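Hi all, posting the design record for the shared folder.

TITLE: backbone redesign
STEP: 1 of 1
STRUCTURE INPUT:
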């Protein structure tokens, strides 16, 4: 289990820096410590908690619910702007103005809400600075231990309901190599624009709203409706049903053994 866990964590943590890396043992940006805050800051626990809820709902999809990077936004705990921010003097103007050219909208926030988000971001940064031990890259050669024939048999039993070696996966071994291929195999998240996940939300009033899934965690469910409007609700106040074709890959993670993963990976590499 330890070896399997290491691989799954490694794919999650290092994908952004490793997918285009060349050679072996190349250092990852994640192995370097985040820049230190220029001013030590502490905030009340209730303000941080309030900020976490707001950040998750407003910023989590892009920057990750922990502010350490998400679908399209950078890791804020490693941002120079956050390191130099003092109680919102830099974060505040940024949030209110946005960066439209980079896909970040302007936010209309009360002073209380803005202060709570700033408190949460700085608390996350403090935690990131306190982490000990360096992250290291995954050596692609470590993955080359599988049996292609065993992988073909596993694929035939677990994957052919949705995939075909001569159809959607034809040539995948050419298109993707190394960690990029393993990541696509384990969890082929297509990103916000490419996601096919939909959600139907039933409101307390009985009204029903459907659309493309925009965000989901234990606190919030959000969608983009047919008119392009982003709509979000506290998850505990509505009923919702998500239809996500990728969920089967998430479920499969709990079924793979180390050997299974390496065997299927070896088989996919033969599809050229």
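Okay, here is what came back for every position:
SEQUENCE:
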């Amino acid at each position: 289990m330890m070896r399997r866990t290491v691989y799954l964590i490694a794919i999650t943590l290092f994908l952004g820096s490793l997918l285009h890396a060349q050679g072996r043992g190349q250092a990852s940006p994640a192995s370097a410590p985040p820049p230190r805050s220029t001013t030590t800051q502490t905030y009340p626990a209730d303000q941080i908690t309030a900020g976490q809820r707001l950040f998750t709902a407003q910023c989590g999809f892009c920057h990750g619910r922990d502010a350490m990077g998400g679908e399209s936004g950078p890791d804020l705990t490693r941002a120079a702007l956050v390191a130099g921010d003092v109680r919102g003097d830099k974060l505040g103007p940024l949030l209110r103005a946005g960066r439209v050219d980079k896909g970040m909208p302007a936010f209309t926030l009360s002073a209380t809400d803005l202060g709570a988000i700033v408190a949460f971001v700085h608390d996350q940064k403090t935690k990131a600075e306190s982490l000990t031990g360096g992250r290291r890259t995954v050596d692609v050669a470590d993955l080359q231990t599988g049996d292609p024939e065993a992988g073909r048999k596993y694929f035939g039993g677990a994957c052919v309901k949705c995939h075909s070696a001569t159809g959607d996966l034809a040539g995948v071994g050419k298109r993707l190599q190394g960690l990029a291929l393993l990541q696509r195999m384990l969890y082929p998240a297509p990103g916000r624009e490419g996601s096919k996940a939909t959600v139907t939300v039933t409101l307390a009033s009985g009204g029903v709203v459907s659309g493309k899934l925009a965000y989901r965690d234990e606190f919030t469910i959000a969608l983009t409706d047919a008119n392009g409007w982003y709509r979000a609700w506290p998850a505990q106040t509505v009923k919702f049903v998500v239809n996500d074709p990728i969920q089967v890959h998430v479920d499969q993670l709990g079924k793979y053994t180390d050997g299974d993963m390496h065997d299927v990976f070896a088989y996919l590499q033969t599809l050229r």
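COMMENT: Strands lie at 198-202, 208-216, 220-224, 230-234, 239-243.
Let me know if anyone wants the other runs.
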